Amino acid sequence: MKSSDDGGSESLGIGALAARFGLATHVLRHWEAMGLLHPGRDAGGRRRYGADDLTHVATILLLKEAGLGLNTIRSLTTGADRATRHAILRPAAEELRSTIAAARASLELIEGGLNCQFEDVTRCPNYRRLVTERVGTTQ
Prior knowledge:
3% strand; 6 helices; two-stranded antiparallel sheet; disordered N terminus; mainly alpha
């Protein structure tokens, strides 16, 4: 990181920070407006990001990749106690478990089609088993 004009502390400008994480600068500005980031300012009023800000950006990105929205991330990163954190994360974990189960079922169907030796996939034993299970659960 290059030295800023604010007493020589290590910091990055908004463009450099955005480039470091592959983000557009407007994303960082939006996160700041939402209260997720709190950059310092130099004598000219330009944003300056330090090591803690890099950690915050990495945290935001990790939580977004986990499927959490910005409002949820703000709640988690602004001092939520353990009980609050659990109340926020339990529904997200359940939703993710459901998504994983659906993805596994889809993969099972697709792999069954890949491994099937019949020309008509509807004749494959795996496909027929899955259809039978589905028919049995709707009656």
